[in-house]
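Homework help thread (please don't just give me the answer)

Our assignment gives two proteins as sequence + structure token strings and asks us to describe the second one. The first is just a warm-up. Here they are:
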Amino acid sequence: MKNNEGVQIMENLLAAFNQNTENVLSLFTPDATVEYPYAKSLGIQHELNMEDYKNHLNTILLQMPEIVFNDLKVYALQEENWYWGEFQAETTVPQTGLVYRQEYVVNFRLTNGKFSLYREFWNVLPVLQRLMNKEDAHHIIDNTITN
């Protein structure tokens, strides 16, 4: 993996997650889209415009303070400005004291050095176990099984 623009912006994004919502948003174009394809299975919003993403960040960043990111890898694709990346994250959720660990895979496109599309894939199990209250998690699981 060579050092590329994708590596730099991902390093900036991971650092911004430990700063504030505005720093994160500054790395995106105004018309960018953020997608969480697996969020749909949880019954939560899976395609976000920047206003939606701002609201999401204002909630989720409080649940993941001082998140530690490791093992960042970014791969430039043949198509210009497109990348795949992967990284690991860990934090303690303040409300529960539980450790949240996740492995992420991301696909993104840059426009003028900013994210114009950011698609993040993650395992739903740690989200259910660590970031949701038990009632909501069981409701999602029960609805998935019966549908």
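The one we have to describe:
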Amino acid sequence: MGKLRLKFPDGSVVEVDEGVSARELLRYVPQKVAKEALCAKIGENLIDLGSPIREEGEFKFITFDDPEGKSVYWHSTSHIMAQAVRELFPGTKIAIGPSIDEGFYYDFDPPRPFQPEDLKKIEERMRDIIKANLPFERKEITKRKARQLFKDEPYKLELIDEIPGDSLTIYTQGSFTDLCRGPHIPSTGYIKAFKLLSIAGAYWRGVETNPMLQRIYGISFPSESALKEYLVRLEEASKRDHRRLGKELDLFGFDDEVGPGLVLWYPKGAIIRKVIENFWHEEHLKRGYSLIYTPHIARYKLWQISGHTDFYSENMFPTMEIEGSPYQLKPMNCPFHIVIYKKKLHSYREFPIRFAELGTVYRYERSGVLHGLMRVRGFTQDDAHIFCRPEELESEIRELINFTFFMLARFGFSQFEVHLSTRPEKFVGSIDNWDLATEALQNALDAQNVNYVVDPGEGAFYGPKIDVNIKDALGRVWQCSTIQVDFNIPERFELRYMDADGTFKRPIMIHRALFGSIERFMGVLLEYYGGYFPLWLAPVQVVVMPLGAGEIEFSRKVWQKFIGDGFRAELDDTNEKINSRIRAWEVRKTPYMIVIGPKEVETKKLAIRKHKQGEIGVFTYEEFVELLRKELKS
């Protein structure tokens, strides 16, 4: 048996016998790490603590503090839940049980649908399994033996047939065995706190023609305090759920007669959207962009040239036949921008050329993954495409980074995660071009002193990219802005320009979206602010409420003055009692309320209430307008 050299995170190198288990190496790390270790990592591979070491390389113990540790912890908890379900509900078929971004789920095909009260029973059985401290035992078996073992599990048999090779791994804890690559925590007793959160329906493999399964979601932590903290955060998140707020504030909705994933913007939501779009247009014009508009459909041939039919067909709606020619709803705006570019021959003197459009696109998403405004089938991208020369690429990227942070900061966002994604295994274009573009992106980020993470191999097939994600008030991360260099489309459409030396050259193209989509950005804004929009975004900025019939005439004049001065104001002269009206506008999260009684009519002054603060004083109309304008400027 030979010796292996392992390098630990602190830089120390340890020589060990080949075949020694990862667990036996715990003596080389601090006591805290040894106590909290869930599994280990050698090179890029995760292994169980009980697995033998067969290769040299960088070695690390994984704890719950590591992203991989959370994933393993939650995946193991899903196995414990599956064991509990099988013991409580005989005859239940099991499907898959992965970890997800926060927690885990397992899909089941039970004899009867689960009820909310079943979750408590499952939790009780899980506690028994955890208390028993059952070891997770890994075993490698042949596919033939696996088919025999899972002969009564149709979903597992389907998965077994798709696994390459002649062998696979299973994990057993107590009475439960599952098909699984692992790794897992050493034993069930490692789970210290957990909660089953909800039951949902899910089609097997997300395909609507497949059986509908029962999905149970859950979460787990190494301590009760961490679980309690998470549940508090979850409750706060539910209050901020944009779907709930959209309904409460009458901003947007969906309708079965229209179809799933297709947003209906109600008047108040449309006002917010218009404010966002107006600001977007103004800022783009200031920065030298040309605004364009393009159709919602195009001939199928356009999508063949662009490559969408080869690389993106599963996300496109079916073609439609018009006058004997196939047409396609657009999944992206870029081919239209290309066609506009090609309408004339461009000189290098015109560069960079910047086209911008709020263009609505349509993408087929399975109904099971649709989620409010965050995942829809029709949405408006804040798209821009920039055509430039190689020597202009880095400066354009720098400008785009500045523009991105400016726009996001204007909406109140200050915490970001930035990722630079580099060349994947399958790519188009030359390696030299990829290196040029990647270096330009990297230099631009460095020049702006932006902290970023490099994601090797995660670029699009057509070029490297920068992604800017935003963090909300609850610490959640939302995908938002993207800047992508594209070598594919300029080649496919044979784009060119006349350079200074009189020769034709191929321009570089940059795709760019600041918000991602108006719909998703609106959903993020709703959850970020919890519906309490800043004054400049609020659909109704001021509401005027007469105390009684005698104050209606004066109230109407005040309301009309606000409208004339460009404010979004409403008059509430309903017969409801004033306290009921105030409560109703508080629920609608209106920034300012003005109650006008006999005294206000007599003095021609306004009693102002501010949302969540109550009365803030008495002002003349001019004084209050000055206060509003100062707030809008800030």
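TA reply:
I won't write it for you, but here's a hint about the kind of observation we're looking for: The radius of gyration is 30 Å.
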